[in-house]
Amino acid sequence: MTTHPHLAGILTDLDAVIAEAPADATGALWRLTGTGRGLDANLIRLRPGTVIAEHAEPALDVLLVVVEGGGRIDTEDGPHRLRPHTACWLARGARRSLTAGPQGLAYLTVHTRRPGLGIGTGTSVRAEGAEGGETACLLHRVCPDCGRLATESGARFCSRCGTALPD
Fold first, then answer.
1. Reduced to 3 states, what is the DSSP secondary structure of residue 16?
2. For a surface tag, which of 46, 71, 79, 97 has the fewest beta carbons within 10 Å of its beta carbon?
3. Which residues pair with 72 in a beta bridge?
């Protein structure tokens, strides 16, 4: 049995994270960290008009909750307006794209952690506390200037405009 020093508690004030971030900061402003957790969560901020190209998460369901600003999410069943406190369930395999509105868009994503990657017989072997797998959020692959989604997982620069990609 795993022992967790804190079974429940306040992690952060998302409004304060947004308020204290530099005005031009985009990408992940906050991430859930710590070993032994079963979830990943990210607070993401997009500039006005930023588009995250259509993509699908093949392995995980994702909960997206708008914290500030607004915009639009386009899914297979059409466009949907996003505004503060809108919650979206993004089922694994569902195609979607996001467009930030004129005030920009800040949203929280939450999903189960990916299991560690392994080679072998199909059983996963991980060191205790090791981080593993690729994040469900592909925002680290989205160019902050032109919005292009890098197709290469290790890309460091946008292939369209040359801007450095977020970490």
1. helix
2. 79
3. 81, 99
Phi, psi of 151 (to 5 degrees): -85, -20
pTM of the model: 0.68
How far, in Å, CA of 53 to CA of 98, rounded? 7
* Residue 33 confidence (pLDDT): 86
Whether 106 contacts 69, CB under 8 Å: yes
Tokens describing residue 91 = 């089922």
Spatial contact of 106 and 79, defined as CB atoms under 8 Å apart:
no
- Spatial CA neighbour of 62 closest among 28, 21, 29, 107: 107
Report the alpha-carbon distance of residue 158 to residue 32 in Å, rounded: 26
Tokens of 125: 């072997």
Cα–Cα dist 137/123, whole Å: 25
The mean-pLDDT minimum among 46-50, 102-106, 160-164 falls in 160-164
